[in-house]
Write a structure and sequence with these properties.
The structure is a single chain. By secondary structure, this protein is mainly beta. The chain folds into three domains: 89 residues, Roll (Membrane-bound Lytic Murein Transglycosylase D, Chain A); 112 residues, no CATH class; 112 residues, no CATH class. The protein has four helices and 24 strands. Strands 6, 7, 9, 10, 11, 12, 13 and 15 form an eight-stranded antiparallel beta sheet that branches. It has a six-stranded antiparallel β-barrel with strand order 16-17-23-22-18-24. A three-stranded antiparallel beta sheet has the order 1-2-3. A hairpin with a 6-residue loop joins strand 4 and strand 5.
Length: 364
Amino acid sequence: MKLKLITSFLIASVFSFASLADVLKLRENHPDTYTVVKGDTLWDISAYFLNTPWLWPRLWQANSQIANPHLIYPGDLLTLIWVDGQPRLTRKQLKKLSPTPRLSEKREPIPTLPLNVIAPFLSKDHVIDSNLLINAPLVLGDAAATPAFFEGDTFYGKGKFNANKLYGIYRLQTPYLDPQTGEDLGSKLTFLGHAQVSTNTDFSGNDQVTPLDFINSKREARQGDLILPLPEYDSLPAYFSPQPVSTSVTGNILGATSDASVIAKWNAVVINRGKRDHITIGSMFSIMQPGPEVLIHPENDTEEVEYSANASRFDKQKDPDIILPPKRVGELMVFKVYEKVSIAIVMRGSELIKKDNTIKGIEF
């Protein structure tokens, strides 16, 4: 009987501990209420309450007032409550109308991520295997030997084009190379603008060339830029649910999509993990700053310690004695996946992030 009581106590303790360990942890000095403003994202709001904002679905779940957390609108008053020992957000959607307030629906619910940042990669810019673009149609130039073309200009494209189709003008960028293997992972196609077959009778084509009107441009087009049929618009969601990734999955940031040398919060980046690595939309990664290399020099009865970066040219040729552990400096979320790479957005950056930063999956 005593053994049964002890066993029951231990089982209850284990379940009690597991329950406590599973409680969603709130930030210190978190607010009790928050009023949604234009420009907010679900991630931003969750970060006011949680140190781990990628767990935001748990903060909004099991709440009849927020059956769909994606439908949160500017002006909504969010209040922190507790349900079965777990923190939850409840919503009041009020609009003051004389003489009494009443509930009212509002337009444009806030998104998970800032859509203006990810919009170019939803339907315009792409990453592609450059081998698929061999013999693709090119911008050739015009009769006046103009080097660059803008909206309203007419230029010649190599080959024949369908007069009933709209084409995209793209510039192929330098390939992304895997820093570990040197493998070509694909090249970014930067969207420059739209073009269509010209109806201007002052221009004529033949079997080799077709005159095209540059009907709208995001930036200038140049000789050698690609002319491609517009792809089907991507059916990416406006709302992204964070997805766990095993901490055994690691990789590298290949660079910012803007080609900036320094990366910060809300910047889009390319990582060297894609569909073949089982990455999906919403996959979450930690951003890791590599630890510095350390050299240890024996000096009589003592040892001299210095960073490899500060060592003499001769000592820099030596292998480091110790590499200090990497530091977590932020998180990113994948929002578009290709075969070998993915495009992700930096959700947090406590320090400036660089191309040599590594990534590591987040389990939750």
